[in-house]
Amino acid sequence: MIAYGVQSVQSNLAAILMSTTPLSSTVLGHFYTTNEKFNFIKTFGILIGFSGILYLFSDNLLIDENNFLSALLILLGSTCYVIGGVLTLKISKKKNENVTGSILIWATIILIPLVSFIEQPWNLTPRLDSTISVIYLGFVSTGIAWLLRFRILVNNGLIFQSQVSYLIPIFGTILSYIFLKELITTKVLISLIAVSVGIYFVRKADYKKTT
To answer: How remote is the C-alpha of 167 from its chain's centroid?
Structure first.
């Protein structure tokens, strides 16, 4: 859903829509987990972090009849990440590698017929760099990332884990400066501070809960 949606919306709008996962994780975590309940400090931290992302990408935001469906798909796709986290917590007593392996195997089984029908990959002749990128995305950005995601979910909770969506656009901008020589503006620094403060308040709320 996200891959389809980003084709028709601005990158800044897509970043904001994908950064709503901590908001949806707060709601779903309150109702479907036993240790992720609402409290003022945690909610305040999440809103501070989201306001940092909103400020970073606040220029020229537009949702109209041409991209409404795409924006909705991105929002639904981001929410599905949170639902996946909730379901993963239900089997948190299982071994990390077993859960990660099962998720990736079933994802492959589901996607193979869809990709075969839509993309017809046997008709493609990918370049070497494209093939290397796909392998990297599969093993590192998906396989290893899922192992880390499961551990963070179990040890730190759904809401804390979902805040990674605040860091992605921030560090994307920083890496663009390092590798692509793009400028880091004052807005980026202010947004990074807001996200950091938000994460601090969420962790503070969790610390108070355990003491």
So the answer is: 9
pTM score of the predicted model: 0.67
Q: Which of 146, 35, 143, 17 is nearest to 88 (CA)?
A: 146
30-33 long-range contacts (CB < 8 A, ≥24 apart) are: 32/86, 33/86, 33/89, 33/157, 33/158
d(CA 123, CA 130): 15
* Phi, psi of 64, rounded to the nearest 5 degrees: -135, -170
**Section 98-106 average pLDDT:** 83
Residue 59's SS3 state is coil
Q: Which domain holds residue 16?
A: 2-210
SS (H, E, C) 180-209: HCCCCCHHHHHHHHHHHHHHHHHHHHHHHH
- Could you give the angle at which helices 21-32 and 164-180 cross, rounded to 10 degrees? 160
What rounded mean pLDDT belongs to the chain? 78
pLDDT exceeds 60 at position 210: no
DSSP state of 8: S
What gap in Å lies between CA 16 and CA 36, rounded to an integer?
23
SS (H, E, C) 93-113: CCCHHHHHHHHHHHHHHHHHH
Q: How far apart are CA 189 and CA 31, in angstroms?
A: 35
pLDDT at 76: 86
Split into its structural domains, the chain has a count of: 1
> Tokens 């994307």 — which residue?
172
Residues 6 or more apart whose Cβ sits within 8 Å of residue 196: none
